[in-house]
Amino acid sequence: METADTTPHAQPPRTPDATDTTDRPPQLALELLVHGVGGTTPQAMLNEPRTTLITGDDTAACHRRSEDADAEQRPEDYRDIPVREAYCWSNLTSGNGARALWLILVPFMVANLAHWMRPAGPPGHPAQRVYDVLVRALALSLTVLLTAAACEVALDLTAWQCAGTASCVAGRSWMGFVSPAQGGWWSLPGRRLVLAAALPLLVIALLTWLSHRTWSAYESASPPPRRPGTSRNTPPDERTALSLDGFWYGRRVVARLRTAHTTAGVLTTAAAVLWAVRTTDARSGAGAALTVSGDALAVLLALLAATTLAVVGRTARSEAEPDDTRDGAVVRALPYAALAAFALTAVYAAWQRPMATTSGALPGVAGFGVLTVLQGALVLALVLTARALHRASRDDARVALNGMGGPAVALLACAVGGVLSGGAAQRFADWIDGDATPGDTGAAMAGPPVLLSWQASVLPVLLLVVVAVVLLAALRVGAVRRRVATDVPGLYDDREKPDAWLTGKIAGTIARAGLTDSAPVLVAATAAVTLLLGAGAVLGAWCTGRAPGPATEGAPPAVHAAAETASALGSWLMGAGVILLLATGRRAYRDRSARRTIGILWDVGTFWPRAAHPFAPPCYAERAVPDLTWRMATWTERFDGRLVISGHSQGSVLAAAAVWQLDLVTRSRVALLTYGSPLERLYGRWFPAFFGPPFLTGLHREMDDWRNLWRFTDPIGGPIRLTTEEGRRIDEGPLRDPLTLGRTLQHPLPAQILGHGDYQADPVFDRVRGDLLARLGTALPGQRATTTPASGEPERSGAPETGGDSRTAQGSSGRSSG
């Protein structure tokens, strides 16, 4: 790939004068292309095998055709056509094979999405802060759940149950030194627990390191060159938070949450060790000194836990300014204080005491039930808060689940976390106990906690509900297909002879594309059944205290057999889910195509900053949005040209977010072209507090040069559903797909149904882009005057010109921008 420096030679600024008749060079036009989910290459975007890197790096960069690299030096060659430039950001999500291993942490990503699905209540509504605090608390519980799952595998199943059972240790030479039969130093139960605690601590250390490293690599992009602007004509209720100066730079909130979650993980591990040892000491009648020491450690852990909860509760995003300040000494010292508390707990647990054998499950495994009940209570509180916010906002029938999208997604995050935790514990117990079945009568090991067995038994029922919803959706597709088939010929010229087979194919594509609008039904059904079955599992585990199979021994044979089958099948499904994720991550590391497929998941799930969970996959938009903003602001300032930012699919979301970050002068020189865009269909419905109709209206009001292309056959993109004050529609469509219904002289073969892709193949695309450039050309301001910032205002200019000229764009727009 070639590189080129397109920086022009420095020229002294020229103040425009009304009598100046000097001929100005032709005004250059730039089309900045932004691709969608899954990524692509600059060669494919520009339809040119030879491309040149203009600016950027291996992670994200702008490219042009090699022959256009110096277009700014010869604008007369581009009088009638724009210079096309491709911004490629796919390596932010799918470029590194190791990123696929983040699939294991998908519950954290889903919990982070719940934060941004808050209903759009009035500005300053007190329920907004309550909602955010509840989501952060629920995200913290997921970190505790992950640590508890690691403790279950390492402390309970390995160090407590297997190491304390001669038949389990036999044949495993790597566990011989902890066997009570050997009488070694590590054979005491407390010392075995301290040794096994290394696993959960390593897990937390790895997540902390990943969170810090990914922030530096992906999310630490500097803010835009100039402060975003909002027109005075835009009402306050149409101003979205995405236009705030610090929305895409929240270093402090991620650092604070990382500190709190790291502390929570260490404290969970210390509490698991302390609870087990204290319980055993109470049963064996340990001395007063050990009892007092254990009580003191419990108080210390409780104080640190309370401090951690306070930090999480007070950690709110500061979006008005880039949040790059450092936390105080108390917050930064929390993880080290937790490690010190764990060290004291380790000394206490390793102290010489008479207990030498262990039996049954590790004391404290009932904490899984307490954690599950706590998560359920948080979800119910989220439901009430979201309901209050939605009722206080302007009713919009297109908001997903009537504002309940956030609580539903939060519940699914807890469910996925429970499945992964239970699956890992179940599969590890089956492996370490050999041919025996943990928990059965006469088995050497008690096995995982009873709650995990009950959760496994209800999993097949949940899958049956999902299958039923999918079947209903399939029936709906068939009905819609038959109804739409009669309307398809009306979209085309009457002179075209319809093809029955192609007409049916088009109708089927339109019907399947409409399933996207039915996604709330699937989410609602899954969340409701998950809540009911989860409550049933907790109640069943609490009432019986045993696994569901043995608990039904007195029932009729059919009921007993069904319970055993559900428990066994659910256990297998939970374990298979963990194995499937691990296998997918391993395959993605070796297979580029699989890595790209997984990257699509991150494109959708990691657009939002990490505001609730610091261990979620990193946010690529915190690099991509500043990149696009910098490029638009500096190019229009340096070359005094017109710019159309052209976004497809997820790229249209990035483009809109970047336009919101522009100052008013730059925004007056930029037009927005979106196609296959989920801005209203997905983001407007699921994230109403940021992309709801009022905020899209505000973007449209501040930037009337916006056009959107869409198709009925597109399962992702859709119309924006807005019109200008002059009655001009933003939406251009629905476009014909395919372009012809039958065979014609121009298309002798059946045309391809494009669906979500290749919008540029439609002639309407070139026409709309030309209209945008022509509209910009008639409304551009004159040459900007050089000004200096007001006294006391920090200067944040674009890229400096050669020779040190760092002008700031403070001129006024030729169009009225308020």
UniProtKB/TrEMBL annotation:
Report if keyword Transmembrane is assigned: yes
The membrane-spanning stretches of this chain are: 130-150, 193-210, 259-277, 289-312, 333-351, 363-387, 399-420, 454-475, 521-542, 562-583
Ranges of Polar residues composition bias in the record: 805-818
Q: Which UniProt keywords apply?
A: Membrane, Transmembrane, Transmembrane helix
Family annotation (InterPro entries): AB_hydrolase_fold
- Comp. bias (Basic and acidic residues): 60-75
Q: Where is this region: Disordered?
A: 1-24, 56-75, 218-239, 776-818
Which branch of life, at top level? Bacteria
- Protein name per its UniProtKB record: Integral membrane protein
